[in-house]
Specification:
With about 190 residues, this protein is an alpha/beta fold. It has 9 helices and 5 strands; from the N terminus they run E-H-E-H-H-H-E-H-E-H-H-H-E-H. The structure holds BIS(adenosine)-5'-pentaphosphate.
Length: about 190
């Protein structure tokens, strides 16, 4: 059972490779927990679409399947988590993605006396990931770019699994099931809280 760290607010991270279903599940999980879904990928895509200074800076990086630098992401996430709706808890999709980002998230939460309640790792076989992403047709969904995003995931994001497992926050979920079954597995992994 996941126990909320303060009042009823729950702070959950969804972790998994591109195409594992983080974005698909974030809204459903957030809704059932009564908290906000926050996707850094979505925020960056909105910035690109708006042609904002942030969007202009990250456009090429995203199109190449690389990670935006940790300092930029720290600013984006610090500001977003300071917003009023995030005070009642959140489901964070796409952050952290490096050990340095995990340290930043911990620091942001520590400063306001909060902590993460759980990190849900959505596990899906690589062949299925590529098929799913290629079926979606987003700007960064060409086969070359998805392979690069997967390589970046293995190199920079996968170490977070051991990091959060060591901190006893990790919950493993089989993402190679129907969308509804994955949602149920996440609910179960959160001890019925979701
Ligand atoms: P981001 O948007 O976070 O991309 P990602 O992690 O590569 O994840 P995806 O959005 O590709 O996949 P997903 O796991 O959300 O799966 P989805 O639900 O869409 O980031 C994009 C870019 O922004 C990064 O490459 C980077 O450049 C930058 N960025 C973002 N955050 C950053 C950070 N913290 N640091 C640095 N850079 C950052 O599902 C995929 C498809 O599968 C969909 O079509 C869906 O309908 C389908 N599907 C989902 N679940 C199932 C299921 N169970 N069965 C069958 N189909 C399914």
């Amino acid at each position: 059972m996941v126990a909320a760290s303060s009042s009823s607010a729950l702070r959950i991270v969804l972790l998994g490779p591109p195409g594992s279903g983080k974005g698909t599940q974030a809204g459903t999980v957030a809704e059932s927990l009564g908290v906000s879904a926050i996707s850094t990928g979505e925020m960056l895509r909105e910035a690109v679409a708006a042609g904002s200074p942030l969007g202009l800076r990250v456009n090429e990086i995203m199109a190449a399947g690389e990670l935006v630098d940790d300092e930029t992401m720290a600013d984006v996430v610090r500001e977003r988590l300071a917003a009023e709706d995030a005070q009642k808890g959140f489901v964070l999709d796409g952050y952290p993605r490096t050990l340095s980002q995990a340290a930043t998230l911990q620091e942001i939460l520590d400063r306001s006396g909060k902590r993460l309640d759980a990190v849900v790792q959505i596990d899906v076989p690589e062949s299925e990931l590529v098929n799913r992403v290629l079926g979606r047709h987003r700007a960064d969904d060409t086969e070359e770019v998805i392979r690069q995003r997967l390589a970046v995931y293995h190199e920079q994001t996968e170490p977070l699994i051991a990091f959060y497992r060591e901190g006893s926050l990790l919950r493993d979920v089989d993402g190679h099931q129907s969308i509804e079954e994955v949602a149920k597995s996440i609910r179960d992994a959160l001890g019925g809280e979701g």
